[in-house]
Structure formats: structure tokens, C-alpha cells
Amino acid sequence: MEHVDVLIVGAGLSGIGAGVHLNRRSPDRSYAIFESREAIGGTWDLFRYPGIRSDSDMYTLGYAFRPWTEAKAIADGPSILKYVNETAKDHGVDRRIRYRHKVVAASWDSAASRWTVDYEDQGTPRQITCSFLMMCTGYYNYARGYRPHWDGEETFAGPIVEPQFWPEDLDYTGKKVVVIGSGATAMTIVPAMSDKAAHVTMLQRSPTYVVSRPAEDAFANSLRKWLPPMLAYAVTRWRNVLLQLFFFRMARRKPAAVKKQIIDMVRAELGPDYPVDRDFTPAYNPWDQRLCLVPDADLFKAIKAGRTSVVTDHIARFTPKGIETKGGQLLEADIVVAATGLDLQLLSGLQVTVDGRPVKLSDGFSYKGMMYDGVPNLASVFGYTNASWTLKADLTAEYVCRLLNHMTKTGTTECRPVNAEPDMAPSPWLDFSSGYVTRAMDRFPKQGAKAPWRVHQNYALDLLAFRYGRLEDGVMTFSRPHAVAAPQPAPALAAE
Asked: 0.90 cut: is pTM over it?
């Protein structure tokens, strides 16, 4: 049976980054990347809806080791996909990828200190072994989104489109469109479709905090004229990280003041006569849910131009001609877009077994937000809720390399976080009130009240812990349970 030192699952932003970190920090390790789809990019290849873009700046969504040099800091999907593809090619990571390889189960054998991974190679069941398993599959189900059923939707004469499965041939020119939702996806689709549609209505049950910022970062673009690209990128990255941390902390300490500031900014954009209290004033505090970013105020401009409107109401039923709300409005539509959220999924539904015992990861605690109590040599990437995904992805990949290098140095073959406090009080893994999060928290592990079982939503704290913290911290145990048989040589595909 084929063996690699590290098996990375997923060739999106996280998986490509993990491959680069292995090349740079643990070059003695063989690895392969399994991707269930037919292309690099993950989210940025899957989603094809109008206006697809980042919802955070590319100076923090970009990799720590590769500067973002495009003019726009809030980048469109094709530009991000190009960035990921170029990174993979430039670092030789693209040669490690095996497409249409879907991982379904992993079984750890302590006697052999390795995982046996079951996967489907273009539908054919196969197995591979690895010494370390790194899951870079994201946090949502690629096969389906969250899609509620509405009364009467079968009677609607037009298509009901899901952003996750956008039809390539959908023509909305001159059509009336209703977009259901108020999250980042809806905020992106609505102004993008309004350029060609007759009218676009965003139908939301409740408002979301919306902030506008320029698509281009004038500070970053100016800095690149005077400094080398990597230095300019690092300065901008840290500037944006610190600003984000400051804003988040202020939102937690002075929520009323931050709420007023955000609402006042919206009111300044839409004018004193717009019902901001109805459509853009949430009942919750800032950062209890993720804020929505609109670059260059594109949503507000579409509203002021009359191309877009916002309706805050609940759906009563669909009709052949559109949607009837509980407030009695009839929203005429030729097309309905159900931007109703994601279906969160842990480790892409991977079935995990340790020494013959099935493990239900949701019953245990998460170690540093990346490993699992009692589960050896397995890490997963999950980004921040209040900052860019890649900030945490980079740190996680760095930490995995530290673990691998430490095991080489100490002659150990297993690293296993073990909770020695059975009475530790659990709390939800994510302290977030968004619907897509609360619907899924029972599928995710718990977090504890203190490190390393607490999930920090703080890049600065994680940077210190992941990059400089002690590996042998009294929780992470390193061992060599038994003599390990020499693995087979890595295949030619896994060579540089």
C-alpha cells in the first residue's frame, strides 16, 4: 500500500498553503494533496455567482509568504483563484495534487503509528497510509447549502437559484430578481445583478451590520512604490490585523458606541429619509455575527440609484409571480436567488477511527482550534470568524510543521493532545449567533475555559502560541508506541 508522510485533504486556499509550508519548513517529509473536485481553488473555484469576491482584505486573506500585489484589496473571485493557482505552481505544490480523490474515512493504528485512509479515486475505492493527516477541506458542505423549503415554492413560474450551484446559462438581463438573505453572499449578489437586471430586491428576515470601505487600499498601493513588495505587504498586513483587532475589541467593550458609529455611516450613505432603523439596524451587537463588507459602497449606490431595494419581512408563501410576505407585500420576481446560508460540516464528513474505536469528534474538546482530544497526528484548518481565514490557516500549517520537526528531533512518531480534566466545562466551539453557526454547533467539538482548549478569535494571541509556545505543554503528548515498520518510498508524484 502506498504511504506518504503527510496527506493533505483539500486543494483550496488552506491546502495549497499547507503544501508550501511543508516545502519550506519540513522539506524532508513526503506529501500528497487529495482534492475531491477537478480543480484547485476550493471556494474560489466552486462559487461562480455574479460579483463573487472576498469579504475581507487580501493583505490578510493572502498568504503570509506571498504578497498580494493587485491594486484591489477587496478582490474578485477570479483574481483570488489566479493567486492560489500561481502560488501552487511557483512552489511546485500543483505537482502533488491528485484530483477527484475523495477521502471518506481514516483509521489510526497506534502499533504502526499511521493512518489508513479510505478514499475514492474517481469513484473507485482505494486506500493509502500516512503518518500525519491534515484536513484542509473548509467548514461547509460542498454538496449542498442550507436551503429551507417555503410554502408554495413549487408554484413559482421562474427558477429558484442557489449561489453554491449557480447556472452558467442564467440570463437575468431585464428580469426582476428577489435575493433571499442578508449575509455576505446576498450583499455581493444584489449590487452585481443590479447592473443588468430590471430590479433586484433583497428580502431579509432581519438586518445585518454593513460597513463600506474602498476596494483599493490607498495606503498599501502607495507603500509599494517605496518599499520592496514583501516588506510593503508585511507592513500593510500587520496594519490591517491591528486595526481589525482594535475594532473587534471596541465592539466587545463598547457595543453601543460601535453600533451607533456603524449605523451613522450607513445613514450618511443612504440619506436622512431612508429607513435605516428598519433595514440596517440589527437587534444584536456588532460582531455577535460577522459584519458584511460592501466595497466602494456598491450596495448603497445601487439602492440610491433605484436599481435595488431592501425589504425586511418574513416569507408567507411563494406565488406563481413571486413572493408574498407576512407583511402583505407581493414581491414580483422572474428569478429568485436563495442566498440562505451554508451547511456547516466538520472535516468534510470524515469518519474517524482510533485503534478500532469510532471517534465522535463533537463529543470532545478542540486543542488550539486545530486538533482533537485523544486523536493523534490529525490537524484541521478553521479560520477566524472575526478576521481573514488565511491568518489562522498559515499559523495552523506552521504549527503542524513544528510538530513534525519535533517528532523527527525526538525520535517520536505520535503527537496526541490529551485532556486530563474530565470535569472541564464545555462551551460551543464558536461563540457566534449567526444562523448557519448555531444550526451546526452540535456537529463540532467543544472548547474549554482555558488554553489550549479555548478557541481564541485573536490572531496576535495565536501567533505567540502557535509560533513560539512550548510544544510539550503538558497536554500534547509525544510518544513512539511501538517499533514502526519502514514505510514504502514516496511515489514519483510526491517528489519535487
From this structure: yes
Q: How far is 410 from 407, CA to CA, in rounded Å?
A: 5
* Residue from 204, 193, 205 nearest 302 by CA: 193
In this prediction, the residues of the chain whose per-residue pLDDT falls under 50 are 484-496
Q: Which three cell numbers stand for residue 134?
A: 491534515
> What pLDDT does 42 receive?
92
State residue 383's pLDDT score: 87
Give the per-residue pLDDT at 294.
94
The pLDDT value given to residue 483: 52
d(CA 460, CA 127): 39
Output the CA angle 43-49-51, nearest 5 degrees. Answer: 100
Task: Tell me which H or E stretch contains 468.
Answer: helix 459-468
> CA 234 to CA 222: how far, in whole Å?
14
CB 317 within 8 A of CB 155: no
Phi-psi region of 4 (alpha: psi -120 to 50; beta: other; left: phi over 0): beta
Interior angle at CA 27, CA 480 and CA 383, nearest 5: 85
HSE-up (13 A, CA, CB side) for residue 74:
19
H/E element holding 332?
strand 330-332
pLDDT digits (tens, 9 = 90+) for 116-136: 999 999 889 999 999 999 999
Determine the Cα–Cα distance for residues 75 and 346; give it in Å rounded to an integer. 27
pLDDT tens sequence across 298-348: 999 999 999 999 999 999 999 999 999 999 999 999 999 999 988 888 888
Judge contact between 52 and 77, C-beta under 8 A: yes
Which ranges of 173-321 would DSSP assign to H, the alpha helix? 184-193, 218-223, 229-253, 255-270, 276-279, 298-304
Amino acid at residue number 414: E
- Treating both helix axes as pointing N-terminal to C-terminal, what angle do 229-253 and 459-468 enclose, rounded to 10 degrees? 120
**Beta pairing, strands 292-295 & 378-380:** unpaired
Rounded CA-CA distance 120/488 in Å is 21
Residue 389: which H helix or E strand, with range? helix 389-410
> Sign of torsion, CA 172 176 182 187?
positive
